Automatic annotation (TrEMBL):
This is Dioxygenase. Gene3D superfamilies: LigB-like. One of its GO terms (molecular function) is dioxygenase activity. Keywords: Dioxygenase, Metal-binding, Oxidoreductase, Zinc. The lineage of its organism: Bacteria, Bacillati, Actinomycetota, Actinomycetes, Propionibacteriales. It comes from Nocardioides aestuarii.
Length: 260
């Protein structure tokens, strides 16, 4: 991979469940966002739904992972066949130190935290896509991981952390796309929006003790912590990014970020 003229941004997105594909509002926002970005040569995405250490990379050409249940049959028949991403896998392995080895998975494809939003953003599936596992929940370690990946941005690679800014599924009282946001969700969202607007990485990293709405907003934190891969890949992590999407979906915050 060789440098390109325009550095790609890095993103943190809310990925939603498969019904996101049928939501005209949020899917329209994601599609419009992708249309405003430079066209990537490749995409590297870290999803909340693959927690594995050491760092693992998905296999090009492997079937999608349908890691969900209780939805319409059509979602289990969907495909997203992208070009071979072996060159990107080799490049990533070369960026990692001996203390952070990379293992190539031989059969795992993209999970719904990757293919659902990408199916909306890049529906032609004509860009190589690689998924990386989330090896830790420690913000500092994830920031360092994002920093190691930063050179890829100058080579046309779009780095994406895919999660959900609030994800208290056990505490939702209703499962409708237009459901009102519970207080714990709206409070956490407002707190995060303020910290992101100030570029306050330390506050964002101290979510367990400083964020309102915890632990309801994140009874487990894998949907929040991909944010730190994105922030680590930023040119200047404590510079405020652009909060491209906000609002709620099933009462959960879909706030999403773009960093330069």
């Amino acid at each position: 991979m060789v440098p390109v003229n325009d550095r790609m941004p890095a993103l943190y997105i809310g990925h939603g469940a498969p019904p996101l594909l049928d939501d005209p509002i949020w899917s329209g926002q994601l599609a419009a966002w992708a249309a405003d970005l430079p066209r990537p040569r490749a995409i590297l995405i870290v999803s909340a739904h693959w927690e594995s250490a050491p760092v693992m990379l998905s296999a090009s050409g492997a079937p999608l992972v349908y890691d969900f249940g209780g939805f319409e049959e059509k979602y289990y028949r969907m495909t997203y066949e992208t070009p071979d991403a072996t060159a990107l896998a080799t490049r990533i392995a070369g960026l990692m130190p001996d203390t952070e080895p990379v293992h190539q998975h031989v059969s795992r494809g993209l999970d719904h935290g990757a293919w659902v939003p990408l199916k909306i953003m890049y529906p032609d599936a004509d860009i190589p896509v690689l998924q990386m596992s989330l090896p830790t929940q420690d913000p500092e370690r994830l920031m360092r991981l994002g920093e190691r990946l930063k050179p890829l941005r100058d080579e046309g690679v779009l780095i994406v952390g895919s999660g959900f800014l609030t994800h208290g599924l056990p505490f939702l009282r209703e499962f409708r796309i237009d459901a009102a946001a519970p207080g714990w969700s709206s409070d956490f969202d407002a707190w995060a929006a303020d910290a992101l607007a100030r570029g306050d990485v330390d506050t964002l990293a101290a979510y367990a003790s400083k964020a309102p709405g915890m632990p309801y907003a994140h009874p487990t934190v894998e949907h929040y912590t991909p944010l730190f891969v994105t922030l680590g890949a930023a040119t200047t992590p404590d510079e405020p990014g652009t909060q491209v999407i906000d609002g709620f979906w099933m009462g959960l915050s879909k706030r999403s970020l773009q960093v330069a």
